[in-house]
Amino acid sequence: MAEEISVDELVIARDRGATVIDVREVAEYLAVRVPGVRLVPLGTLPDEVDALPRDERLHIICRSGVRSLHAADFLLAKGFDAVSVAGGTMAWVQRGLEYETGDDR
Asked: Of 11, 17, 40, 82, which is least surrounded by CB within 10 A?
């Protein structure tokens, strides 16, 4: 099972240039997201796996941490180093951290 990290740990990882993959649906992403995330909806993850970097840890986030755990487990099985963000985007916003809205794709 994938390791979970806190949003505080994600802040540190992002400051160091970590790749953050958001596995929510487009409408959720447009409503609110962690700045700098890459949108790869969970249903499209198997098709996108070859486009993801294999030489770094992937930080997977969703709304509350359930889908990100599934995605991280999937990626671990494919040979990636992946962790899930506990509490997801909701925990990020509740923590009072900066977030983005709207379409920047």
From this structure: 17
